[in-house]
Write a structure and sequence with these properties.
509 residues, alpha/beta, Rossmann fold, 34% helix, 27% strand, binds adenosine monophosphate, Luciferase, domain 3
Length: 509
């Protein structure tokens, strides 16, 4: 079934419900939203976009984003959302790789994008697409026929290494992840609000799906991005507001709430994920912002749907403090209902509870495969199990603790050291605001542990060394520290360990 039926259904029974907000303003209701998508679909068909054709969206978050995206689905085409913060050359590469013949792009980016498309020798129609949504001369198209399995979203992974791969998701995966968000993050009914400070092109943007399916309100901030003060003000305005926030965004929200001197109002759920949330940061966020947090662990290949820690679970752990509650709070929670989870050894065998291995997941929500990369697909999905590339351990109660990406594991003197554990320890020091740990090649040990630290002031190596000795095994503590003003991060706020290793190699040389 075409995912566009979700919008059509909501518009039929709840046409006058507020659908999209822009800042504090109402931008459109569901009747208008569906009409825009249906007119956009007609325009796409007139351009020769057939069901199954790819249409890229290289746009900043803006209210038009959603009707454009849904017009692509309404037409039966495949959306290729591209993060607007990418370089036009990177966007052109994705457009060419996905074979997108039509690209919706912001006015400011169009000249550079068109130049980059020429370099890629890729011909495509580049438009903002906005005028067609409101062109009443265009008839409203019927929803195109699509099967559950047919591609609907090509999700180009953030690519902290190498070229991004296009994860192919159909209506089936989108619907499963939408229900997963409904169940594990926030149940949606009319009036419930999703704010979109994180790029709509990425995992956080998928949070908009259950709000369309169940008649909630999607609100795009006027800054078209993340501004902590704006986000908190929007929550206070709209009420019952939820949003996705990467851990770095949560830190900034905490700072904003602290400087305002009071607890934020109007929040339902802040869903964190996308990267490790350190326990010290979570505890501070709960204290300053309140019991509004839930967590999702997923990846493009299994979108937002591997494990979750719903708000009620986090709050129960904090209130009742059962045995092991701090470890559970630092975990990524328990398997979501639509997946089977298994931690496996390099031979693909499940390891006993408590042992570390690669996190593997199986279920209807796992991607169809990588777009036109059968070899990469075969390497990622083995015997029906998606190999996530994340290292973790499952305990007897089903909580999954993530240690690291397998490529980030440090092996020193033959012993495995998980950077995450060292980072957790460093962040427990009051003067450390950010920390990232990598392995430096070493002739004697194989690798040595090196910590890059963003510290408040006057902090010394000796102090941090003593602090680590208090918290982690001696062999895990960093042999070298480097104090830096900031850590290298990608557009989603994830620390780029590859860049950090390059910095470190230059420094060591
Ligand atoms: P992407 O496909 O770009 O969204 O990246 C997915 C990767 O981000 C996962 O494989 C994990 O390594 C990491 N990640 C996602 N969610 C979490 C989380 N809640 N905690 C820790 N790491 C996460």
């Amino acid at each position: 079934m075409n995912i566009a039926h979700d919008l059509k259904r909501t518009a039929q029974h709840g046409g006058s419900l507020v659908a999209i907000g822009h800042g504090t303003e109402v931008w459109c209701n569901y009747r208008e939203f569906a009409a825009m998508a249906a007119r956009g679909a007609t325009w796409l068909a007139q351009q020769g976009v057939q069901p199954g054709a790819r249409v890229a969206l290289f746009l900043h978050n803006r209210p038009e984003y959603l009707p454009l995206l849904w017009s692509v689905w309404w037409a039966g085409a495949v959306a290729v959302p591209i993060n607007a913060k990418l370089h036009p050359k990177e966007a052109a590469w994705i457009a060419a790789h996905s074979g997108s013949r039509c690209i919706f792009a912001d006015d400011d980016d169009r000249p550079a994008l068109q130049g980059a498309l020429l370099d890629e020798r890729h011909e495509a129609l580049v438009e903002t697409g906005f005028t067609h949504l409101v062109d009443h001369a265009l008839p409203e198209a019927p929803v195109a026929e699509r099967a559950e399995h047919d591609a609907a979203w090509l999700f180009y992974t953030s690519g902290t290494t190498g070229r991004p791969k296009g994860v192919e998701l159909g209506a089936r995966q989108l619907r499963w992840q939408s229900m997963g968000l409904y169940a594990a993050v926030q149940a949606v009914e009319p009036g419930e609000v999703a704010l979109h400070p994180a790029p709509l092109s990425h995992g956080g943007g998928m949070l908009h799906l259950p709000y369309v399916t169940y008649g909630g309100i999607n609100v795009v901030p006027k800054s078209h991005g993340f501004d902590a003060d704006e986000c908190l003000a929007l929550a206070a305005h709209w009420q019952r507001a939820s949003f996705f926030a990467a851990p770095t965004m949560v830190k900034r929200l905490v700072q904003a709430a602290k400087s305002s001197g009071r607890r934020p109002l109007g929040l339902a759920t802040i869903c964190y994920g996308g990267g490790p949330m350190y326990l010290a940061d979570l505890e501070e966020a709960l204290q300053v912002i309140g019991p509004h947090f839930s967590q999702i662990y997923g990846q493009g290949e299994c979108p937002m749907t591997i494990t979750a820690m719903p708000r009620h679970l986090i709050n129960r752990l904090c209130q009742q403090r059962p045995q092991g509650w701090r470890e559970h709070l630092a975990s990524v929670g328990v398997a979501q209902v639509m997946v089977e989870l298994s931690v496996r050894d390099p031979q693909g065998q499940p390891v006993p509870a408590g042992d570390t291995g690669e996190v593997c997941v199986r279920g209807d929500v796992v991607m169809n495969g990588y777009w036109q990369q059968p070899e990469a697909t075969a390497a990622a999905i083995v015997d029906g199990w998606l190999k996530t590339g994340d290292v973790g351990r499952l305990d007897e109660q089903g909580f999954l603790t993530l240690l690291d990406r397998s490529k980030d594991l440090i092996i020193s003197g033959g012993t495995n050291i998980y950077p995450r554990e060292v980072e957790e320890a460093l962040l427990m020091h009051d003067d450390v605001s950010e920390a990232a740990v990598i392995g430096r090649p070493d002739a004697e040990w194989g690798e040595q542990v090196v910590a890059y630290v963003v510290a408040r002031s006057g902090l010394t190596e000796a102090t941090l060394d003593a602090h680590c000795l208090d918290h982690i095994a001696r062999f895990k503590r960093p042999k070298h520290y480097r104090f830096v003003a900031e850590l290298p991060k990608n557009h989603y706020g994830k620390v780029l360990k590859t860049t950090l290793r390059e910095w470190d190699a230059q420094h060591a040389a």
